[in-house]
Specification:
Helix content is 97%, strand content 0%. By secondary structure, the protein is mostly helical.
């Protein structure tokens, strides 16, 4: 082989290496972009989950409050009814 042929082969190999490097860089950019998009999506999902959890906690708190109020009202009604029955029994 002559020096010219070796030089041409080296150029071809170097061009192929450069092409592979370029493809690897492009692939790396695509991966970075996909990661950023995925990260943004996950952050948005987490925000929505946190918001929904807070809403659920608020609703549960309101439900507990309503339940306690209902218990008090029921106790008052039962006490009033018991008093009415007691009065009715005394009148008879």
């Amino acid at each position: 082989m002559s020096n010219n042929q070796n030089g041409n082969e080296e150029e071809v190999i170097e061009e192929k290496i450069n092409e592979l490097i370029k493809k690897a860089e492009d692939l790396n950019k695509q991966i970075d972009k996909s990661y950023e998009e995925s990260d943004a999506f996950i952050n948005e999902v987490n925000k929505n989950v946190d918001k929904n959890i807070k809403e659920i906690e608020k609703d549960l708190s309101n439900l507990d409050k309503a339940e306690k109020e209902t218990e008090v009202e029921m106790e008052d009604l039962m006490l009033k009814r018991a008093e009415e029955i007691s009065k009715d029994d005394e009148e008879e």
